[in-house]
UniProtKB/TrEMBL annotation:
Database matches in Gene3D superfamilies: N-(1-d-carboxylethyl)-l-norvaline Dehydrogenase, domain 2, NAD(P)-binding Rossmann-like Domain
Enzyme Commission code(s) on record: 1.1.1.17
Organism taxonomic ancestry: Bacteria, Bacillati, Bacillota, Bacilli, Bacillales
Entry-linked InterPro entries: 6-PGluconate_DH-like_C_sf, 6PGD_dom2, Mannitol_1_phos_5_DH, Mannitol_DH, Mannitol_DH_C, Mannitol_DH_CS, Mannitol_DH_N, NAD(P)-bd_dom_sf
Binding site for NAD(+): 4-15
Keywords: NAD, Oxidoreductase
Family: Belongs to the mannitol dehydrogenase family.
MF-aspect GO terms: mannitol-1-phosphate 5-dehydrogenase activity
Protein name (Swiss-Prot/TrEMBL): Mannitol-1-phosphate 5-dehydrogenase
Pfam families linked: Mannitol_dh, Mannitol_dh_C
UniProt cross-references to PROSITE patterns, sorted A to Z: MANNITOL_DHGENASE
Protein's organism: Priestia flexa
Residue ranges of domain Mannitol dehydrogenase N-terminal in the record: 3-187
Domain Mannitol dehydrogenase C-terminal: 201-378
Catalytic activity from the UniProt record: D-mannitol 1-phosphate + NAD(+) = beta-D-fructose 6-phosphate + NADH + H(+)
Length: 380
């Protein structure tokens, strides 16, 4: 039986990527630091994925096991030696932390196994696998890098499925939205995985996804948070916020249509479909989850700043994106470490410093001035 080693046995790991591999006949070895999840994976050897819909579908996921990368390094290295795929859904900021272990595993593997292995990072980040590859290579000598170049392929990917924080922490079953899309960039002939869509150029797919699903979601989360809302679907019931989401996605849409030559009508239909997905009350998705890690989300390549910069450079409107960035700067749930860090940075150094440091935006930039204007208005 073919195997996959998947780093991150969380919501996307269990509810999406791991589940697709299991359904395709793979044994899935999840690697995580959450010992309780690892124990449950090993005890039950399976779990259920349930769709958030009136007529819920329940999928049984079998042929899974778990390893703890902090305490079972040797076992993880063994699993890496024979895996066909190595995947991650762990969060972009964690990739550098798991890279040394993957590097060690690949270095040992290429000495004794000539079979190809495919590495795919499934994160909300442009070029996540390329970045992971860089972190892995930093840990290897020239000779091993040369071996890797023949036997290991790295593919960027875009993952789209809304999986909220699960309501029962004692269960490893996962509630997911019915919709999903997993797009992988390669021209190689690779072993089939059910639900994996292969394209030669990921750029239009990941940008369309990140700057529609994730931008729209972020607008709802940050404006909802400021209005004291708890969930995404409740926030969307607010007519003003609903309109703000539409106006912001019109801005990212204009950029995407121009940049990738998308069909205007088809893109408008795509936006409509995404907003319908956000309305799914069965997900009960919290604004704090969707807005989580605002420093990452305010990064220059992420869902808010990058499309704003791109729109500005293309001579297109960006005022609503600037408002979304301003709202993100006011996101402050006490349990979100990055939100706390962001607020401390704002208090100690001010908004210009934060926009420069976190978003690579400078004082004399028109976008910076537009953000500051909205920031002052939202503070009132
Ligand atoms: N939840 C969602 O709807 C979607 C999430 N994503 C992306 O998928 C990735 C994972 O997100 P979620 O599954 O929602 O997060 P999650 O928090 O549910 O899962 C992350 C898992 O990584 C584990 N982890 C953290 N640090 C670790 C370490 N050093 N070593 C091993 N394991 C570690 C955690 O224990 C957790 O089980 C993120 O990049 C996210 O942006 C992408 C699309 C949808
Ligand atoms: O997972 P991140 O990058 O923190 O952001 C949350 C976003 O990811 C998703 O979970 C799915 O793409 C969306 O719900 C949301 O836009």
């Amino acid at each position: 039986m073919k195997t996959v080693v998947h780093f991150g046995a969380g919501n996307i790991g269990r509810g999406f990527i791991g589940s697709l591999f299991a359904q395709s006949g793979y044994h899935v070895t999840f690697v995580d630091i959450a010992q309780t999840v690892i124990d449950k994976l090993n005890e039950g050897k399976g779990y259920h994925v349930k769709t958030a819909a009136e007529n819920a579908e329940v999928i049984e996921v079998n042929n899974v096991s778990g390893l703890n990368n902090m305490t079972q390094e040797e076992e993880v290295l063994d699993a890496l030696k024979t895996a066909t795929y190595i995947t991650t859904a762990i969060g972009p900021t964690i990739l550098p932390r798991i890279a040394p272990l993957i590097a060690k595993g690949l270095a040992a593997r290429v000495k004794e196994n000539d079979e190809k292995v495919y590495v795919i990072a499934c994160e909300n980040q442009i070029s996540a696998t390329e970045l992971l590859k860089g972190y892995i290579l930093e840990n290897l000598d020239e000779e091993t890098k040369e071996e890797l170049s023949k036997k290991v392929s790295f593919f960027n990917s875009a993952v789209d499925r809304i999986v909220p924080i699960q309501s029962n922490p004692d269960s490893i079953d996962v509630l997911v939205e019915p919709y999903y899309e997993w797009v992988v960039e390669t021209t190689e002939d690779i072993p089939t995985v059910e639900g994996m869509k292969i394209v030669p150029d990921l750029a239009p797919f990941i940008e369309r996804k990140l700057f529609t699903v994730n931008t729209g979601h972020a607008v709802i989360a940050y404006l909802g948070y400021l209005q004291g809302k708890e969930t995404i679907h409740q926030t969307l019931e607010d007519a003003e916020i609903y309109e703000q989401v539409q106006k912001t996605l019109k801005e990212t849409g204009a950029y995407l249509v121009q940049r990738y030559g998308l069909d205007q009508g088809e893109h408008e239909a795509y936006i409509k479909k995404i907003i319908e997905r956000f309305k799914n009350a069965y997900l009960n998705d919290s604004v704090n989850r969707v807005g989580r890690s605002p420093i990452r989300k305010l990064g220059s390549q992420d869902r808010l700043v990058r499309p704003a910069v791109e729109a500005k450079q293309a001579g297109l409107p960006y005022a609503n994106l600037a408002k979304a960035i301003a709202a993100a700067l006011l996101f402050n749930p006490s349990e979100d470490e990055e939100a706390v860090q962001l607020q401390t940075m704002l208090e100690e150094h001010g908004i210009l410093y934060v926009l420069s440091k976190v978003s690579d935006l400078h004082e004399n930039d028109d976008l910076t001035q537009e953000i500051i204007k909205h920031y002052s208005q939202l503070q009132k």
